[in-house]
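Appendix B. Chain record.
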Amino acid sequence: MIKIGNTQYCRLLLEYAFFGYAIQHDKDMLLKVLKDAKEIFNITFETYGVEHLDLLPPPMESNKIGRWVSCNYIGEFIWKVRDGGRISRAELSRGICSGNNLAKIENGSVVGNVYYMEVLMQRLGRHINHYFTTFPRLKDFNEKQIRDEVNTLLVIKHFDKAKELLQQLKDSGFCKRSINKQFILHAEATMIEKKRGENKLKYLNALYEALSITLPDFDEKNIANYRLSYYEIVIINQLANYYVESGDPKEQNRGRKIYKCLLETMDKHIVDEDEKKRMYSAVLYNYSRALGSKKSTKTAMKLVYKGKKFCLKHKRFIMMTRFILNQACNMQDLGQKQESVPFHAMAFYGSAMFAKYGLAEDADIIRNHVKEHFGIEFDHPLGYSSLSTGVPMLIGDMSSWEDSEIYSFLQ
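Structure tokens predicted for this chain:
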């Protein structure tokens, strides 16, 4: 960029590299960027003291997975894990398939459909890819690809295309299975919520309808005792957020209790960390944010530190950016105004980097907040008019992401 005379763009890339490494807690690299910017490119930029923070490196432990058992087929594995955990067939199969069908899967007399197997494994706290990596039918594989694309489209708010693909799934007979019907209902509920001006009660009822497919007797006071599938966790997370955002103090407290119970059941029942990481950081973030809004700041900060450690270990850098923002706001509430500035800066530049992935609004809010309360005006990214369209893409193609990363935004 320097060679072709575009110093401004080079400076922007160096800024993003600096703050990107800060978010990853890679202090060696952020200091190298700072040094190279000055010595090689003769470029300086405002760092807001980020280089002086005590950025501990990410933990190096490997992801934990549940114990392996000797078995000849996945049904036998399900039986051994279920029996070893003293989980009844009725509890495991509730809303998914009949107890008789589960018995046939376990004894090998039938090959379970991939959608059944996926949710059964999730309720056992396992990530299916560790145990079952092939799909019995090409049709199932293709439908799953469409399902994952719908998840992506919902995040980037391409509702017309998402609606078109949902109709394609309906026409294919995808909805004949109850768990697939739950996905359709949940996707439709999400589109209601994301469209401005829609009836909020309609959205709430749509979430409960989707949840009732697999949990017809759902009791939010008993959440901590449920073994939940991925989409059940997603839906309950959205229910909690609905109540927290309601503006009614009683409903807000209800939402906070749901978050607390949801974290408890995830800690209690999810064995494989690859399964846990799909929604854990999102629920942690939402709960910490809800506590912060209640001014339970010290408790919220404990969750923030827990969330940051989790995100660093599992490289969930989008959610890491949001935890940093939460930390900055809590520090400000605790009277640590000046100390919060570097965290506000990291949150702004991180949100700008991930603008096209759901954080454009965060970046705008942070920039305006810091200007109002600190008198600091963060640099506009190059070509900035709306961060959702103006930021260079530095983090790869969204199509390669897991749907777990995407659903971090569906709060």
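Further analysis of this model is presented in Appendix C.
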